[in-house]
Amino acid sequence: MSHDAVRLHGVHVRSTPSVTDLAFVVGHGFTNHVRKPFVSRVLHRFARHGGVVALDFRGHGRSGGRSSVGDDEIHDLAAGVSLARDLGYRRVVTVGFSMGASVALRHAGLHDDKPDAVAAVSAPSRWWVRDTVAMRRVHWLLEQPHGRLAARALGVRLGPPWRSTPESPLEVVHRITPTPLLIVHGEQDHYFDPAHAVALHRAAGGGAELWLEPGVRHAESSMTPALVDRIATWLDERTAPHTTHPTEDRR
């Protein structure tokens, strides 16, 4: 159950090594849910490194409510973080993909119960992006009556349009420090240009690490096992007790 009483459903994938104190709380992208095959593959790959808690965002999959496309979903991610702590994990990190990445950034910047580290994959830096064909299709889903019906056919139950514009990831990313932050973006992302990742990295004020990945496209469907492993290892190392690491910029 989220803070604002939306009933959420998801999965808890126990780690392959059965004893671990690390949990990955994973936020999926728009139109996805935890049972989609390519999402499930990512979750089970993370489970090689720790426990995984992944909830369907409101309006998606088996969860109740209606999608606000990145605003109220911070309550859903907060519920996942709280659940991971209740399950006994001492280190709780968040990983978000696309819309889930914007949620992870906003959650870490705005919520009192911050995770121990954050990874944002394929994140938008700002709202109302129409720079690509893929995002123009998304806005058709969000804004046109026939589009909203099509979104329901895709498994997304949309809420009403925003009454006021919530803080964008770009506006809150500087508040995440000193929590370790990793920004990952594919150089071939067909939804959000890599300039979004560069802008987020710059706005973080030196408190983030940036990976621009050659040949990688967008979000969960573009994740290779090796890239998931690298992200998981980075989060594990940055939250391990008594370890410090210099911030790197892999561009």
From TrEMBL:
Q: Name one Pfam family in it.
A: Hydrolase_4
Which UniProt keyword terms apply here? Aminopeptidase, Hydrolase, Protease
Q: Give the transmembrane region(s).
A: none
**Domain Serine aminopeptidase S33 stretches:** 23-150
Q: Which PANTHER family does this one have? A: PHOSPHOLIPASE-RELATED
Named from the GO MF annotations, one term is: aminopeptidase activity
Q: Which organism is it from?
A: Saccharothrix carnea
What's the protein here called? Answer: Serine aminopeptidase S33 family
